[in-house]
């Protein structure tokens, strides 16, 4: 028995990031927004693009973010800091535009791959992340910066978010230490002037 093409439930193939890393023609169409590009922005948001389960639907991940923030499990500061870090690094790379990953619009980097999933569910781990308010902003911002740098500079590893999170987990206590020390120094200065 042989099924025809209309009964195919799923296919296996390269993701958008894999094509961008390989500088393929289809990726160039995605970057330029050409009409012959395979996936629209709405398809990226809804999750109708190739990728691992859990990382393709931006809406599903954002629903998870709302639940985690509402229940107090995750820090919105880390999430927003990571988005800002990714945006800043993406804008810098868009100005350079050396390859397909650098030319890919900065905001589309947040819709493809595991950026949203990593930002919402992995970076906000309450045990290994930064604990101070200012530290959470710094921690998230640096995850966004380093994650996109790993994605762009290492074409064989276009999903750099987990590596960036692990790196920042190592530095989270140091970030908190300097934030606390800075607060102590400010209080001492206020006492001296009072």
Write up what this structure looks like.
It is built from 9 helices and no strands. With 194 residues, the protein is an all-alpha fold. The chain has one domain. α4 (58-70) packs parallel to α7 (115-122), α5 packs parallel to α8 and α8 (133-153) packs antiparallel against α9. The longest helix is centred in the C-terminal third of the chain and has 33 residues, at 161-193. It is elongated, with a radius of gyration of 20 Å. The N and C termini lie far apart (87 Å). The model has no long low-confidence stretch (mean pLDDT 84).
What can be said about this structure in brief?
The protein is mainly α.
Helices, strands, pairings?
Elements: H1 16-21, H2 25-32, H3 41-46, H4 58-70, H5 76-96, H6 100-103, H7 115-122, H8 133-153, H9 161-193
Helix pairs in contact: 4-7, 5-8, 8-9
Molecular shape: elongated
> By helix and strand content, what is the structural category?
mainly alpha
Q: Write down the overall mean pLDDT.
A: 84
Q: Would you report the number of β strands? A: 0
- Amount of helix: 55-70%
Rg is 20 Å
Low-pLDDT windows of residues:
none
Major β-sheet, in short?
none
N-to-C order of helices and strands = HHHHHHHHH
How many structural domains does the protein architecture include?
1
How many angstroms separate the termini?
Answer: 87 Å
